Amino acid sequence: MKLVSPGEAAANSNDIPAEAGEEFVRIGEMAKKYGVTLRTLRFYEDKGLLNPKRDGSTRLYTRRDKARLKLILLGRKVGFSLRDVKQMMDLYDPTGSNTKQLRLALDKSEKQLARLQKQRALIEDAINELSNSMTVVRHMLTERAVPQASAAG
Amino acid sequence: MKLVSPGEAAANSNDIPAEAGEEFVRIGEMAKKYGVTLRTLRFYEDKGLLNPKRDGSTRLYTRRDKARLKLILLGRKVGFSLRDVKQMMDLYDPTGSNTKQLRLALDKSEKQLARLQKQRALIEDAINELSNSMTVVRHMLTERAVPQASAAG
DNA sequence: CGCACCTTTTACGTTTACGTCAATCCTATA
DNA sequence: TATAGGATTGACGTAAACGTAAAAGGTGCG
């Protein structure tokens, strides 16, 4: 099963990348490098977000994959779904101006920004309501003599 | 199947509750009144959060159920899980001071408040990152001449 | 009487992003 | 060669809160 063997130099994880030519990393190293699990990397691949090369059956990630993973993680961080991320990535064309991609990204971003702001408002609402409730409960706890308050039965 | 028939007065939904004695409402009215679906009410019952009386197989909700539902909805609004809500409600004892219940509620509330604040921070982070990205993308769109930026392949 | 409307129970489906085995395989190292 | 450490695919599990469909029973009204 070993017809091709690129980057044979780096055998185990903690080898010094040292020189250039350290093009490929395996899944374990990739995972550590970006703080994700192996499962996650395979999952992203399954969803068409990553496309590492193979040495037989072993996945080999290049810096292209790293760039993509970075984008995925950024996308996740700002709240995009993986589907959104994929949709945007799929539009990437190395030979063009990527105007369509950028427009789509901007469009989705605007919507996502709106969602985030709405969420923030909801959370602030919740914080306020919860704080109020806590105040009430604290009073109920200190002034022991509240037969019928707003508590349930 | 109709041995008991309390509150016979209000047959269909939009009847005027009018006088007192309108103790029981059926699921449809209850749902409209609180803006939830029938499914939700049954689901809450299934989870032990509600316990309407029955006329045969028909659910009859009293103001006790309404009070509980209000609490459930408040709990959900501030981000508690139904399990949390149930746990707190289960501690209610109409004959006691409910100190334990109140303490538990306060304890959970503090933790939830912390979670909410953390969430808010995350969201604000996301908003900032997203805003930055949008600025970048906008620049890329206006200055048509960016061969290799941080886009993926 | 028949239709429209409400209600019931049962139970599988949905969504998202992985977690957690399980069974195998390959490889470097002592 | 035995053993430990990675890696592979496959597939079910999880969490939350219902949605939705199916099949059927009860009820008032015209």
What would a concise description of this structure say?
The structure is a homodimer of 153-residue chains. Chain A is mostly helical and 153 residues long.
Biggest β-sheet of chain A, characterized?
2 strands, antiparallel
Largest sheet strand order of chain A:
1-2
CATH class of the largest domain in chain A, please? Mainly Alpha
- How many angstroms separate the termini of chain A? 68 Å
Q: Which fold name fills CATH's third level, the topology of the largest domain in chain A?
A: Multidrug-efflux Transporter Regulator, Chain: A, Domain 2
Run of helices and strands of chain A: HHEEHHH
Question: What's the CATH architecture of the largest domain in chain A?
Answer: Orthogonal Bundle
Number of strands of chain A: 2
Shape of chain A: elongated
The figure for the number of domains of chain A is 2
Gyration radius over CA of chain A: 25 Å
Number of helices of chain A: 5
As a percent range, the share of strand residues of chain A is: under 5%
The largest contact between protein chains, plus residue counts on each side, is: A-B, 46 and 46 residues
Query: Could you estimate the helical fraction of the residues of chain A in percent?
Result: 40-55%
Structural class based on helices, strands and sheet pairing of chain A: mainly alpha
Q: Round the mean pLDDT of chain A to the nearest integer and report it.
A: 83
